[in-house]
């Protein structure tokens, strides 16, 4: 197929995304407004008849004191990754980005390579010789994903093989998803493990209420989020980031971002943000207080978001990143344990790939990132 690549308007970009069943929230035009510290550009691929067949949001980050850029396509671009002639899509992109001053290109192909069902993961956790997801035979393997990886390597793209859990990437390589298509609320609840079902019932019996928030509620969100940051030892984003995200994403689509609170006796105990593009719904950020945990607000809020996603016709509920470690010594083990309780599946993507356009500057970036 003969392809041409060119810069497109935000309107063209959004129209193409809206024509698809789903795409990553990191590839909608409004994500550029969320990442305001990056320069952005929308790219479009067109076939010989002039029909648009692909799109990509590029974020440019300038090197200090030098007019050279890291060009980043988070969880994108959105194109036909299984085309045997993948080079015809990516070579024009590399040439264009080099012309724009990029010294290296980073992208995250939205291509799934393996899936592990919850039951398989639970058996793996119980097995003494299993330490990581890869130690368990995957329930689903996508052979075409290996072909994509091989094509990328032949073209000169590089992957960080050390980023085992995917957290060495900018975006997670391993995520946890709950399939929704063709299921009922009863099916979902039945898929939960015994502890999750018990905790959902406990929250209902205790009178935990789930309410929706809006832009004016991000002060309360930030209170809970900063409590969580202290407890879990991470640096919190500022309140302004979440307010900017809300304004940018909901200006593009009023149903793109939501804010939920779990409330008990008039006090907010937990909060979450939810994102949606087409049939794909993401649990994006979560926060909770140190008090009131006995009434299980976190289980209640997740169950409410899943039910809302199901009622609105979503095909997948995505709990986002997990580590790949299946042993208690790992600091991310509790995360996968919590998410496995929903009865979904761990999903491995191809991860992020780099193409050095200037090897010296690319090496300097590698050194900088390794020291962060």
Automatic annotation (TrEMBL):
Record field: transmembrane: none
Gene Ontology process terms (BP): cell wall organization; peptidoglycan biosynthetic process; regulation of cell shape
EC number from the UniProt entry: 2.3.2.16
InterPro entries noted in UniProt: Acyl_CoA_acyltransferase, FEMABX, PG_Glycine_Bridge_Synth
Keywords: Acyltransferase, Cell shape, Cell wall biogenesis/degradation, Peptidoglycan synthesis, Transferase
Gene Ontology MF terms in the entry: aminoacyltransferase activity
Residues of the signal peptide: none
Family per record: Belongs to the FemABX family.
PANTHER family for this protein: LIPID II:GLYCINE GLYCYLTRANSFERASE
Annotated protein name in UniProt: Lipid II:glycine glycyltransferase
Organism placement in taxonomy: Bacteria, Bacillati, Actinomycetota, Actinomycetes, Kitasatosporales
Gene: femX
């Amino acid at each position: 197929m003969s392809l041409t690549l060119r810069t497109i308007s935000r309107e063209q970009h959004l129209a193409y995304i809206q024509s698809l069943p789903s795409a990553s929230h990191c590839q909608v035009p409004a994500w550029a407004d969320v990442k305001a510290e990056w320069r952005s550009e929308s790219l479009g691929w067109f076939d010989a008849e002039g029909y648009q067949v692909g799109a990509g949001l590029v974020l440019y980050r300038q090197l200090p004191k030098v007019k050279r850029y890291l060009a980043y396509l988070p969880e994108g671009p959105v194109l036909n990754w299984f085309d045997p002639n993948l080079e015809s899509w990516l070579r024009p992109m590399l040439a264009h980005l080099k012309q724009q001053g990029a010294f290296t290109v980073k992208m995250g192909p939205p291509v799934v390579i393996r899936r592990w069902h919850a039951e398989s993961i639970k058996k793996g956790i119980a097995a003494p010789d299993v330490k990581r997801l890869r130690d368990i035979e995957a329930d689903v393997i996508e052979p075409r994903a290996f072909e994509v990886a091989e094509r990328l390597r032949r073209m000169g793209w590089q992957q960080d093989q050390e980023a085992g859990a995917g957290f060495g990437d900018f975006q997670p390589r391993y995520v946890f998803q709950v399939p929704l298509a063709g299921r009922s609320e009863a099916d979902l609840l039945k898929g939960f493990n015994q502890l999750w079902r018990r905790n959902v019932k406990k929250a209902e019996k205790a009178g935990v209420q789930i309410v929706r928030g809006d832009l004016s509620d991000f002060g309360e969100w930030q209170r809970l989020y900063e409590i969580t940051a202290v407890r879990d030892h991470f640096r919190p984003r500022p309140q302004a980031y979440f307010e900017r995200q809300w304004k940018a994403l909901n200006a593009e689509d009023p149903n793109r971002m939501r804010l939920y609170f779990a409330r008990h006796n008039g006090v907010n105990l937990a909060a979450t943000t939810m994102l949606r593009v087409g049939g794909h719904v993401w649990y994006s950020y979560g926060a909770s207080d140190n008090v009131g945990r006995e009434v299980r607000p976190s289980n209640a809020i997740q169950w409410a978001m899943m039910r809302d996603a199901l009622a609105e016709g979503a095909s997948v509920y995505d709990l986002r990143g997990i580590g790949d470690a299946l042993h208690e010594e790992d600091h991310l083990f509790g995360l996968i344990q919590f998410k496995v309780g929903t009865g979904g599946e761990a999903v491995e993507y191809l991860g992020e790939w780099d193409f050095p356009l200037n090897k010296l500057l690319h090496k300097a970036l590698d050194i900088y990132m390794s020291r962060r």
